[in-house]
Amino acid sequence: MTTPLRDAATDEAPVPTGSVLAIRGGRPLRGRVDVKGAKNLATKAMVAALLGETTSILRDVPDLSDVAVVRSLLEVHGVTVTEGDEPGSLVLDPSMVESAHYEEIDAHAGASRIPILFCGPLLHRLGQAFIPDLGGCRIGDRPIDFHLDALRKFGAIVEKQPSGIRLSAPTGLKGANIHLPYPSVGATEQVLLTAVRAKGTTELRNAAIEPEIMDLIAVLQKMGAIISYEPNRVILIEGVEQLRGYDHRCIFDRNEAASWACAALATDGEIFVAGAKQQEMLTFLNVFRKAGGWFDVQEDGILFRRGSELKPVIVETDVHPGFMTDWQQPLIVALTQAEGRSIVHETVYENRFGFTQALVKMGADIVVHPHGLQNGPRRVPRRELEQAAVITGPTPLRAADILVPDLRGGYSHVIAALTAEGESQVSGVDILSRGYEKFLDKLQALGADFDVVR
After folding, report:
1. Which of the four pLDDT bands, split at 50, 70 and 90, describes residue 6?
2. Which terminal CB of the chain, N or C, has fewer other CB atoms within 10 Å?
3. Contact 151, 158 (CB under 8 A)
4. Is the peptide bond before 312 cis (omega within 30 degrees of 0)?
């Protein structure tokens, strides 16, 4: 595909979705992409609609497979989901919510971990909930213990069964004092979705405070919830008897915005990311600039390109307001072209550097330290599970055949193939539909040279 579209919102026929791409690299990516609502907010706000007594409207919903999974799960529980009055909007009517058989839930959940967040709302609506075995990207251990421990504190009875976990609340749920051992995004969402209709007050300590969490709080407040954010990661929720529906526009997807910024950096291109906002990306923008990137914050988005020769950086991933773990993978591709030694400390997941094996195959000089690096100054406290990657550059990347491992790693492999000289065959790219709307259309709009093999 050598003829680029004018932009990713073109009316021309969409590029077919495939699982294998033949990518011819060495061409800078140039043009415009539009980012919609954040996957990590849209899917959770859809679940929140279960709590309302009236219809909800969610706007700027991205067309992603994860969104489709949540829509299917809502529908098997009796929620009517229809298209809204503008592109990317959904109308969710929970008036006929009912329990679903575990086989239906399992069939629609697929590899998603989202069913765990249905528990609180379903316990309020039906007095029971069921969770099948959970999937998701294999980037590390993501236990649901935080979720189950929190639900027990609200008064839920948890029964482990061969096919999954069944929960019940025969006497209803009550407010609780909960202290998370780690500021987990998923566990914070669980507490919020459960506490808003629990009797009494819930105090959540060591909560996650990501922008998507704050946007979910905004959704719940629109529904009638009483939630206050206190200093030092403390959230107070006063339970209410009833909630109504909401009308809400999703926060933009900062993960996708950062991914395209890194693509511009790696390929020496120039990409305008429409919809990106500065405030939610402050930490990323600082690292982007230190690595030699240049950006221009505009009213309707941010323009990204190289500003100078790429420079080595030291990065420590962390929960918000730190450097997101989702940002480090595409950044590492760009760092292979930086002059000197970069270090990325991964402190959130213990298995997120597996994608670097393909980069090494393509010629990158990357050494992964499975137990982290003991020496050197640190801002983020060391965690037992952390790893470190040392990237020495610049190293020209050469084409290779690659099998993508997960969502962000898969995106990074595609960008590496676009940076490399020659033709690479990248397999398993259909997983990118979980987090990147119209991904191939956007690549084509930016002038990428590729074919869908199958």
Report:
1. very low
2. C
3. yes
4. no
Smallest CA-to-CA distance from 196 within 170, 176, 167, 179 is with 176
The two three-digit tokens of residue 379, written as one number: 């801002």
How far is 124 from 361, CA to CA, in rounded Å?
51
The full length of the chain comes to 454
Sheet hosting strand 80-83, strand order edge to edge: 80-83, 90-93, 56-59, 247-249
Band (pLDDT 50/70/90 cuts) for residue 107 is: low
Indicate the Cα dihedral angle 27, 28, 30, 33, nearest 10°. Answer: 90
**How much helix, strand and coil, in percent to the nearest 5, is found in the chain?**
30, 25, 40
pLDDT mean over 164-192: 94
The confidence score (pLDDT) of residue 2 equals 34
Alpha carbon distance 293, 283 (integer Å): 14
- Catalytically active residues, by annotation: 137
Amino acid identity, position 68: A
Residue 207: pLDDT band (50, 70, 90) is: very high
Q: How many Cβ atoms are within 10 Å of 260's Cβ, its own excluded? A: 26
pTM: 0.91
Give whole-number Cα distances, 305 to 7, 271, 277, 293, 414, in Å. 17, 7, 16, 6, 18
> Which DSSP letter does residue 113 get?
-
Indicate the average pLDDT of the chain: 90
97: confidence class by pLDDT, cuts 50, 70, 90: confident
Listed residue (155, 72, 61, 52) closest to 115, CA to CA: 72
In order of 69, 117, 194, 222, the CA distances from 188 in angstroms are: 21, 10, 10, 18
Residue 83 per-residue DSSP state: E
Cα separation, 284 vs 419, whole angstroms: 21
Assigned token pair, 214: 């704050």
* Cα–Cα distance measured from residue 245 to residue 188, given in angstroms and rounded to the nearest whole number: 21
The torsion defined by the Cα of 360, 363, 369 and 373, in degrees rounded to 10, comes to -150
C-alpha 234 chain-centroid distance = 23
CA distance 424 to 416: 9
Separation of first and last alpha carbons in the chain: 14
Decide the pairing of beta strands 293-298 and 201-205: unpaired
Q: Give the pLDDT confidence score for residue 146 in this predicted structure.
A: 84
State how far the Cα of 48 lies from the Cα of 109, in Å rounded to an integer. Answer: 17
